[in-house]
Amino acid sequence: MVVLSKYQVWAEKLFKYTILSYPFFVLLGFHRESNWIAGILCVLFLYFAVRHGPKKIRLLKRDQLFILAISVPLFLSFVSILWSVDMHKGIKSVETKALLFILPIISLIPQVKKISLDSILKSFLIATLMACIFGSISGFLQYLETGDSGFLYSDNLAYATQSQAIYLSISVNLSFIIIIYLFENGRLKLAYLLAAGLFLIIMSFLLAARLSMLAGFAIIGLYSLYKLKSTPLKVRLTVLIGFIVLALSLSIVFPKTIGRFRSLASSFNYSFDNSNGVNHFNGEISPENWNGLTLRLAIWQCGLELVAENLWLGIGIGDYKQALIDKYQEKKFKYALQQCFGIHNQYLYYLLTTGFIGIVLFLYSFYHISLKAFQNKNYLYLLLLSVFLVSFITESVLNKFIGVFPYAYLLTFSFSLSKNRN
């Protein structure tokens, strides 16, 4: 029996509660303070690594492929600094992704195994619920003050926690999966499942991040089909009618979300010299304006033209934004120049900054870790990863810390603490 010193007991407690408190600092908008959390974790990692010595550090050999898989986006960004003209900007961009290396490395030490996966998932779920509650209260108070119902939608619900609708919507989708996982493993009562699930469904609808919202509803729909496949037809029809009534009720009570989808059909054509703004859920929808689809198509066209000019190694992470702005100027893309838009696609971002070689490594990292998770029957990891892979289609999620955190936090611990892991 190993007897721990008083200092080691306190260090292990601090380590545990620091990890469990991390989602609250990030998701509730305390981003500067969350840097302290990362610093504390790094210091504690070094403390435990020194105490356990080289034998325990050999765990790295067993887990190195996993660490590389999670850290590939950081590794690619770091290497692309070498052929960037503006290295300073490149280094700043890499700093945002540092957590992709810090958390996987920290997960190697034995102290992590003393923290249950359930407690980590519950911390993230509760932090997401709190972020949604604070955002709802903030939006509702602004609505009462101004009479503008637009404050009940989209980014207005995320400003209170220094976030954006898409990132909060991604956390909501991840929370759907966490709720299902906890319920299926007997860690969450049915009443809590229904209450939290219904609230998050309403929040997803109000956040109105279109692709993310559809992905979230697909998760709920597929899970419902799975649970109801052996139930009587009457029960299945009742549940289906309930979903239809809920969808119609939300559409009637909160019509601006439907306006977000209608705006996509306003026009499928675009002209780069169109200086009009983008169709907004809280304004008049016009075919003369940009919409979410045409804007992205135009941005992606610019990005692909840059890719064709820098196919194998890309343009480097430090020069990415300036090269995109130069392309906007060349195309006379007025609105994008005004807003300084990024590429709005994580796959295209790595193709653009690290070239064909980089995107192959980026995609292979998902294949490798997914195959390992599938072999270990770690379906939680695969479902969480799928949320990010879908989100990458319309957003460069890993270019902001608020996107990096859930990716690194949940994927690291859902893999390293999985009961089905070999």
Brief rundown of the structure:
72% of the residues lie in helices and 0% in strands. The chain is mostly helical and 422 residues long.
Explain what you see.
The radius of gyration is 23 Å and the shape is globular. It has 422 residues and is mainly alpha-helical. It is 72% helix and 0% strand. The longest helix is centred in the N-terminal third of the chain and has 30 residues, at 117-146.
Tell me the total number of β-strands.
0
Shape: globular
**What percentage of the residues does DSSP assign to strands (E)?**
under 5%
The gyration radius over C-alpha positions equals 23 Å
Biggest pleated-sheet summary: none
Give the helix tally. 17
Describe how the helices and strands are arranged:
Layout: H1 6-27, H2 31-57, H3 59-80, H4 87-96, H5 99-106, H6 117-146, H7 165-184, H8 190-207, H9 210-228, H10 233-253, H11 255-264, H12 292-309, H13 320-331, H14 334-339, H15 346-375, H16 379-391, H17 401-416
Comma- or semicolon-separated keywords:
mainly alpha; 17 helices; 422 residues
